[in-house]
Amino acid sequence: EPEVTQTPSHQVTQMGQEVILRCVPISNHLYFYWYRQILGQKVEFLVSFYNNEISEKSEIFDDQFSVERPDGSNFTLKIRSTKLEDSAMYFCASSVRTSGSTGEQFFGPGTRLTVL
Amino acid sequence: TQLLEQSPQFLSIQEGENLTVYCNSSSVFSSLQWYRQEPGEGPVLLVTVVTGGEVKKLKRLTFQFGDARKDSSLHITAAQPGDTGLYLCAGASRGSQGNLIFGKGTKLSVKP
After folding, report:
1. Residues of A with CB below 8 A from B33's CB?
2. For residue A2, what is the DSSP state?
3. Which of these, A27, A76, A95, B112, is most buried using a 10 Å CB contact count?
4. Which of B14, B6, B32 is nearest to B109 (CA)?
5. How far is A55 from chain B (nearest CA, A)?
6. How far does A15 lie from chain B, in Å, by closest CA?
């Protein structure tokens, strides 16, 4: 069964460093998303991406964040200068259609980011 | 700000019991998805409900979307230890480009 994959599973970085989190969405999906989950808290939307551009983003997704689909399969989230409060699980998701059109989102296993 | 409130937050029951968890909001959603999440893993989609009043069954799990599309429930019949986990509801607003709003979840523990 097709699934969303994410690498690395765990990333440890120093505050101020740049990190890139990688995702391979399900191959026939057109919409891609990033969410984060701080330990013990709820899953929060960061950004949605379609047709090589951001279609929606949350207040969390500030200028320190960027997303890219560098080739036909990968979808990346970059944090330019990490802060302690960026420590969280980051989940990638993909869907055939947007959730506003009842497009079901399938999540990857997550990348645990620890900022020291 | 749209919010989804889930209740109860924690639920501990014996194997064989029935249970219901709730997901409530003051906002209308175009669809609502239920996920199950294991510690350290990503949410796994269980079901999507779209139409007000809709009922979907997945083996011993029954999902219902409220008539006004503001609330949903998950009922588990004859719970088993394998049902243990965190159950999340997530709603999508009409016209949303993917912004799923998640509840905090119900942590279910089923004891043998």
Report:
1. 99, 104-105
2. -
3. A95
4. B14
5. 6
6. 23
Contacts of B29 (CB under 8 A, 6+ apart): B69, B70, B91, B92, B93, B94
- Tokens 């749209």 correspond to B2
- What is the SS3 assignment for A106? strand
Tokens read off for B47: 């079901």
Element (H, E) at A77: strand A75-79
Place of tokens 């199950």: B36
In degrees and rounded to multiples of 5, residue A34 shows phi and psi of -125, 135
Could you read off the pLDDT tens digit of each residue along chain B, which spans 112 residues? 678 999 999 999 999 999 999 999 999 988 899 999 998 899 999 999 989 999 999 999 999 999 999 999 999 999 999 999 999 999 987 767 678 999 999 999 999 9
Cα separation, A46 vs A91, in Å, equals 10
A4 and B42 in contact by Cβ < 8 A? yes
Q: Check: CB of residue A109 under 8 Å from CB of residue A6.
A: yes
* B35, B43, B98: residue with CB nearest A99: B98
Contact criterion met (CB < 8 Å) for B35 and A107? yes
The neighbour count for residue A52, using CB atoms within 10 Å, is 7
Per the structure block, which two tokens stand in for A28? 């026939």
* DSSP code string of A16-66: T--EEEEEE--TT--EEEEEEE-TTS--EEEEEEETTEEEEE-TT--TTEE
Q: Give the residue from chain A lying closest to B32, CA to CA.
A: A102
